[in-house]
Design goal:
single chain, alpha/beta, six-stranded mixed β-sheet, two-stranded antiparallel sheet, 9 helices
Length: 244
């Protein structure tokens, strides 16, 4: 069963697009690429521009990862998508792997030959995830390389634009508390423990500042809180209750 009835994909998606990525890797002296279905904000609901995993493989589930090596590739999903991944992805090109049984790091360590350079987009991974991938690569004397440009964004010829819908205030009668009270509550929690905290999750930012957006389908979140390079903007909430 697919997640939504609007899912449109076929085995031809990966057959057409995977060779483009392999060509890119060869031209940029990379031996592989690690990618996840994520955007800069780490949420499950993402805008069309961030649907890189679906564009490359054909898989349209809400969670997944892939590792593309020159000689072997795998796509990682959980139990919700055991059937869907086999309907949408050519198993001869990308091996379906249960993320519950085998992590991306474990698969990498098992399949690297040694000495490879594996690229990844640092905007799409937490520091903990990067550490796990780095350790796996180190076990095989390989290098995990952060890339300044996501390869998919380069080879995706009709890549959707980043959304630019307006951010709107959320009415106080629905929010329950003004933003100033929420900021003050966080400031009180930080008192004597830390000088600041970083708020990066879209739903947390929307709640904290009583704002809503329409950039992402099925979620009223404003992921357009980023700088002019469309990178994630972190909001530091200080003990004074001021956000910067």
């Amino acid at each position: 069963m697919f997640q939504q009835f609007s899912d449109i994909s076929s085995l031809e998606t990966g057959r057409k697009n995977l060779p483009l990525l392999l060509q890119y890797l060869d031209e940029h002296n990379l031996d592989g690429f690690v990618m996840s279905r994520a955007d800069e904000f780490g949420g499950e609901n993402i805008a069309p521009y961030a649907e890189r995993l679906a564009w490359l493989t054909g898989f349209t589930g809400s969670a997944g990862s892939a590792v593309i090596l020159k000689t072997k590739a795998a796509i990682f999903v959980d139990g919700r998508y055991t059937l869907q991944v086999r309907e949408q992805v050519d198993g001869k090109l990308l091996e379906p792997v249960s993320i519950i049984e085998t992590s991306v790091a474990e698969w990498l360590e098992a399949h690297l030959q040694g000495g490879e350079t594996i690229g990844f987009d640092p905007w799409l991974y937490t520091s903990d995830a990067v550490t796990r991938l780095e350790k796996a690569c180190a076990q095989r004397h390989a290098t995990l390389k952060p890339l300044t440009v996501n390869p998919i964004d380069t080879i995706w010829s009709d890549h959707p634009e980043h959304p630019k819908n307006p951010i709107v205030p959320h009415p106080l009668e629905l929010a329950g508390q003004p933003s100033e009270q929420k900021l003050a509550a966080i400031a009180n929690m930080l008192a004597g423990k830390a000088d600041a905290t970083f708020i990066t999750q879209g739903d947390s930012i929307a709640w904290l500042f009583n704002i809503r957006g329409s950039d992402v389908a099925c979620a009223p979140l404003p992921p357009c809180l980023c700088n002019c390079q469309q990178r994630r903007r972190r909001l530091a909430v200080h003990r004074s209750g001021e956000a910067v």
